[in-house]
Amino acid sequence: MWDNNAWSYLYGNTSEAEPPFLIQDFIHALQPEARFIAILRDPVERLYSDYLYFGMANKSVEDFQEKVWESLQLFDACLQEFSLRACVYNSTLNNAMPVRLHVGVYVVYVLDWLSVFSADQLLVLRLEDHAADKKTSMNRVFRFLQLGHLSEQKEVEITERPASNTRRLADKNLGPMLPLTRRVLTDFYSPFNRKLATVLQDNSFLWDHHSTHT
């Protein structure tokens, strides 16, 4: 949904700061009736999980704080000159940021997909809801894909299957991010989450830390 770094290679001679075409344009040309499922996680938690998942040495909550701060400064410098959309798709900036801040600006990607495909071709779920209640989540998926009712046998298979990409023990031992880091990231992502909740007409995409435990 978000990985469009190749656009700058495809359109290297363009003077535009924003990509003229994205992955979804190419998919639409081949499969205009396709349906898509996106599972989004609280972008604050997603960024920390992303940092923990990739195999770097000397990971720490303090190191994460430094990388977040540096990335925020780089992203903000881009926004002084270019549009949000241009910065989100700027592969040079994305490669320069120590953490992948741009991936959590979901509303940009969702709007771009909805500019090509209709709303009934895109199902957007929250990872937190899926993790808490796989049965309800998978029933939504089966209905969306017009696969009929989710059988009890399939339901058991799905709910008993272990999760992929789980956090390693060494990374779990680092504990949660620093409260200051969480506040800074929450402030950064909040306006984008508000726009996303409006676009999807669902306030659960606010990921309000006062009312939810994610």
What tags apply to this protein structure?
single chain, 214 residues, mainly alpha, two-stranded parallel ribbon, globular, disordered C terminus
Explain what this protein looks like in three dimensions:
- The radius of gyration is 19 Å and the shape is globular.
- It has 214 residues and is mainly α.
- The longest helix has 22 residues, at 179-200.
- It has a two-stranded parallel ribbon with strand order 1-2.
- The chain contains 12 helices and 2 strands.
* Helical fraction: 40-55%
What is the string of helix and strand elements? HHEHHHHHEHHHHH
**Largest sheet features:** 2 strands, parallel
SS content category: mainly alpha
Q: Give the overall shape.
A: globular
Q: What value does the average pLDDT take?
A: 89
Give the low-confidence spans. Answer: 210-214
End-to-end Cα distance: 22 Å
Strand content: under 5%
What spatial order of strands do you see in the largest sheet? 1-2
Radius of gyration: 19 Å
Number of helices: 12
Report the count of strand segments: 2
Question: Which helices and strands appear, and what pairs or packs with what?
Answer:
Elements: H1 7-10, H2 23-30, E1 36-40, H3 43-53, H4 61-81, H5 84-88, H6 91-96, H7 106-114, E2 122-126, H8 127-132, H9 134-144, H10 152-160, H11 169-172, H12 179-200
Parallel strand pairs: 1-2
Helix pairs in contact: 4-12, 7-12
